[in-house]
Description:
19% strand, alpha/beta, Ubiquitin-like (UB roll), 5 helices, five-stranded mixed beta sheet, globular, two-stranded antiparallel sheet, single chain, 18% helix
Amino acid sequence: xxxxxxxxxxxxIDRSRPVAARFDGKPLNGFAGDTLASALLAxxxxxxxxxFKYHRPRGFLSAGVEEPNGLFTLGEGGGTxxxxxxxxxxxxxxxxxxxxxxxxxxxxxxMAVNSLASPFFQSGFYYKTFxxxxxxxxxxxxxxxxxxxxxGRAAFASDPDRYEMRHEFCDVLVAGSGPxxxxxxxxxxxxGARVVLAEQDSLFGGSLLSETDAANxxx
Length: 219
């Protein structure tokens, strides 16, 4: 995949540091600072998922942890992680990402035929349709329905990675490092309190990161 939708300058990527990853078995090129989502969009991949029930085409809807559509399976073997938002996943060399809930691909999904039957697939229809006519009808249908449910698949192998845990203690915990969070942390710190400034993203700054004013960089 070659980049089709890149600006010549701007943004928070380092164009001098290319990154090579793979998406659905194909090369995915980007730069340091890219997320999986931004790299996919830059490579003209706008249809990246299918809806849960009817398998209708879906693209990215947001740019953070709230992203409902762009969920991917990252890694291989025991290190597999399903249902990870592409908007929060840093693009790194060797990253292996796969789409979910589509076969063989989001662009051509066999299960999209479900949308043709949408008038008959009302919410919770399976709890009424498949209960009868016999007493154990549900026990027969349930495995097939459960198999169709969900998006990504968890790994069967043991996780080979090791994780560290750290305990922190503070007087004031500030969630979010945008302008309000930075000001609150600074004020609390100057009063002598022990402050922890927590940020869910990989960079501090919040909305300041999208500002071009040099004064905002001073934060």
